[in-house]
Amino acid sequence: MKNLIYKKPIRAFLILLGAAAAGGILYCLATVSFWMEDSFSLSELSRSFETSDLFFQQVDSILSNKIQGQDNARMLETDGELDLAKQIDIQSYDTVGNTVQDMNTTYLLGDLLEFYENGGWQALHDAIAAASGDSTRDTGEILDEQSDILETITPVTGITLAECSRWYSDSAGYVEEMYTKLDEACADLYARYVEYTTVQDESWLAEAPSNLLYYIENTSNGEVYTNISADSYEEAVTAAEAEEAFTSLYEGERSFNIMVSNPDRILNSEAAEWFLQKRFVGTNEKIYLAVDTSYPVSDELQTWSDYYAQRETIVWNAGIGGAFSLLILLFCFGCSAAAAGKKDAGSPPGLLRVDSVPTELAAGLYLIAAIFYALIASQWQRLSGILPGGETLQEAVAAASAWLVFLSAALAFVRRFRAKTLWSNSVVRTLIFTWRQVNSSRAASGQLIVQYIGFFVLNLLFLIFFGRSGLVLVVLLDLAVLLYLMRDMAGRQSIYEGIHQLSRGDLNYRIDTQALQGESRKMAEAVNEMGESLCGALEAIVKNERLKAELITNVSHDLKTPLTSIVNYVDLLKRETLLTERARGYIEVLDQKSQRLKQLTEDLVEASKISSGNIELEIVRLQVQSMLMQACGEFEERLKEHGLTVDWQLEKEPAYIMADGRQLWRILENLLGNICKYAKEGTEVRITLRRIDGSSSDQHGADGAGSMELSDREGSHSTDAPAAAGNRRDLPGNVPTAAKGSRDRSAPAAAPEIMIELQNVSRDKINVEVDELTGRFVRGDLSRSTEGSGLGLSIAQNLTELLEGRFELAMSEGIFAARMYFPEA
Q: 0.90 exceeded by the pTM?
């Protein structure tokens, strides 16, 4: 699992699973809260349905629907049928105790509904709102001026409200009042009409069967709402008590909003508390309710009674589900936190782009997101009505999305903690660091602060004591400061340009200090002095290198003359026949050492010429396969002496490069010579020639896996030569190695390259860093017990670069490889 969690699909799955678990927790919590009346007390499970808030809410819903339905029918029907010709007086609409009908404000029901549907009501409503917002004119006057457009409906008299207003002294006030009443009456009637026509069943009718008997009387206007066949309140109570299946639920009378209950006809204390606060038809009402607790009729009470009987099972299942979801959530969070900022188990912690934001600012952004979700939660009751799905499901989705926000914030801080940027990328640290810098340069910063305070005080004094002329003085002072700042900025730009030119290698560049002053002048002079120092140091380095090269060349020439004489006289001594056997042994040693000294002298001269560029090149088109075969042919006997066999890995197609044949021969001669000297006897030498299409020489390993795994003839080469320490890089076959290149291998090549590689198994452990092997007089054999000058690899590298190629060395597990890259001809 440790390695699995670092894979992107697994991470995405854990995040989504955690979000689902968060939604599940809230869903289960909401379920438990619903059935336990928000108390989360197990004692709630022992309560009966008739003592629960759920029961009283359903009773309230049933009564409200029946009262609303009866009101709608009374408003819209005549003799039990919808009557569009019914007359509605908007002046007395929805008022209590007013029986006088004014025909000038009376409309037909059908006309009012048509006025709403055709958009006339909307135009009137908008006009009233616009006129009310105009504080410069009277609202009634504005509406009266637009009456011809707005009043597209007329009362039964045929006289418009605008015309009727002429009969009143305050005509504008009359128009405003009547238009407002027309607006309100139209909106309410149409809402009632829509509700009346969209009812899908008859349960709202008073005579429909129900598990609830009710008698509600509005004592203010005498309106009665009941499903009991009785002519008075007392008869209704008597008739309900005569029903054996029904039990009295509640009886009480409210006068001026003060309820007085009858304790003999209250089912339980919960009913007393509930209906004490609940109003149905106003502040003056009489209520009697009875309920059949067997719930034989199919209505809301029966449905929720059946659900309530299963509440214990639902609550325990929801509790277990919530606990299981919590465990899943914690598991997902732990795995996500463990994988935060990592690509795999061994990779160092990394950051995303968003993690570059300072820590405090990031925390502020996540805090804003949290506040946003809190605002949504506070408005959830209103928003849930316009969102799809049930309210609990919507809350679960909101919880899942809130969890994703929290998780992203938590993982961001985990990444910062692992990458050690939680503090280093914080605003507080920046402020502390800035303060330390300012404090460390108190003289300069103090001077700046004093100057700024002086500048501010001067501006203030000019404005206070000199009036308008002071404003002119302030402008002049500010312009002078602006000019000074611009000159200072120009000076700093000159300093920056000088530093930039020095960094690019133009050590002769000097900054013109005549136009500079103050700190800028001092900085410019310091930069100029630095350039002069660098020029002097560079000249000294060049001079030293030239002297070294001349010394090597002169010493080599001086040694060459006596050395030639020694070699010649040793040769003459070897021809003498009078020497004893011991003397001949001495002569043989002299011959070997003089030849080695001669070779070293020649190598020194050649290395000096190559490093100084004092060498002539004859560039021609060469076939690399032929050069390699010819070079190995020359070394065939030496390779056999050491038991070395050659494994050829050559391109089938001829490979051509532009190079000097003599110098390329010298490179191959040095490399093959090193193989003969330092390769383990009885092992294999691999010579590879490959055409590379791309920028990196690493590409040759794509189809050459295992090319560094050389072995001896018996297949058991020793592993007693571990890779040298140093900078490591991948070699073919995904073998970790150390490598040294003469150029940046990551740079893209302009054309395909020809790669020549010679690999061998080292006889002894190489204790020298691979970066140092191309230096002069450096040998892998630190004891220097073997032959060799330590110049072969240095000469090979320098010659390769003169031929516009690249030279690289690599070591891995006792395997030594030398590579050359040349542009293909």
A: no
